[in-house]
Specification:
The protein is an alpha+beta fold and 306 residues long. It is 22% helix and 34% strand. Strands 1, 2, 3, 6, 7, 10, 11, 12, 13 and 14 form a ten-stranded antiparallel sheet that branches. Strands 4-5 form a two-stranded antiparallel sheet. The longest helix is centred in the C-terminal third of the chain and has 34 residues. The two termini are 44 Å apart.
Length: 306
């Protein structure tokens, strides 16, 4: 197949990055519990259980991570080459163990700008039936992933949690069905990244798709009204066909895609001169590189002063 290559600006954006302190609030939504067992909650009308993990503070640095590849202290240190040609050498004591990441450790590592260091300044907290709980994290890192010709890249943050963090539900067969869980293991957050030009293009396309969808629904309603008002069987068939065509046009608009991916005004953070980040992202887990992916919830990111 065709070789997947990085966006021409990937290295530039990563190289220009300077340490940024960010605050994260995560909303864990019931359904992540399906990692452990099938959710047996048959009440489809009930809102899914959820809970908020608040006040996570991270420092995202520019320095490349040097991955600890072997446990033998006598081994020579290994340099990790990043998305550009730079590398870093350290002593064995400085090697870092980080979680495997979707870009760097996925099927197309070239579209990752390389693993970068991340300091957890403050762990998150949430409240459950036992009171205030701290969420421990380890092996944290981040990367920027951006493929050539893609309108948006992705800022990925990854870490591991040592145990299940759960709110709601009681022990028993229906525990996972009535609770929301941040499961033990790797946790990933991703936020779309845009250039000023690509963001303007995507917003224009989103606006057009929603306008076409609105017009198509109006046309369908008009044609159905005309179909009901006429007694001519040929005109009835014509109006029905026109209404059906309008619905087809409506269904061809990728509204969900635009709604989830393309931010409106006020929903981005400027992180470089013409680079913007979605303030809202998704939270998920996966066994890298090819394990099944499970949605865990959503996240909101805000920029802080270091």
């Amino acid at each position: 197949g065709e070789t997947v290559v990085p966006h021409p600006r990937l290295s530039e954006i990563v190289d220009n990055h300077r340490t940024k302190r960010v605050a994260l609030n995560i909303e864990v939504v019931g359904g992540g519990a399906s990692i452990h067992q099938k959710n047996n909650n048959n009440n489809n009308d009930a809102a899914p259980p959820r809970f908020a993990i608040k006040d996570i503070v991270l420092d995202l640095h520019n320095a490349p991570v040097v991955v600890k590849k072997k446990k033998n202290k006598n081994d020579k240190p290994t340099a990790l080459t990043t998305g550009d040609s730079s590398s870093i050498m350290t002593t064995a004591d400085d090697w870092v163990e980080v979680v495997k990441m979707p870009g760097h450790d996925g099927d197309h590592p070239r579209i990752s700008g390389g693993l970068r260091t991340l300091d957890v300044v403050q762990q998150g907290q949430f409240v459950n039936q036992d009171g205030l709980q701290n969420v421990e994290t380890s092996k944290a890192t981040w990367e920027l992933v951006w493929m050539k010709d893609a309108h948006a890249g992705s800022l990925n943050i990854g870490f591991e949690v040592p145990k299940d963090y759960t709110r709601g539900g009681n022990s028993g067969a229906d525990h996972h069905a009535s609770s929301a869980t941040l499961p033990k293991g790797p946790v990933y957050l991703n936020f779309f990244v845009w250039s000023k030009e690509s963001l303007e293009y995507a917003r224009t396309a989103k606006e057009k798709a929603f306008r076409i969808a609105k017009e198509s629904l109006e046309e369908r309603n008009e044609e159905l009204t005309k179909m009901q008002e006429t007694s001519n069987p040929f005109l009835k068939a014509l109006h029905y066909r026109n209404a059906y065509a309008a619905i087809e046009t409506y269904t061809l608009q990728p509204l969900k895609h635009y709604q989830e991916m393309v931010p409106d005004e006020g929903e981005t953070i400027q992180i470089q001169e013409d680079v913007y980040l979605n303030a809202r992202g998704k939270v998920w887990t996966k066994e890298m590189p090819r394990g099944p992916q499970f949605a865990l919830g959503t996240a909101k990111l805000t920029l802080m002063s270091p």
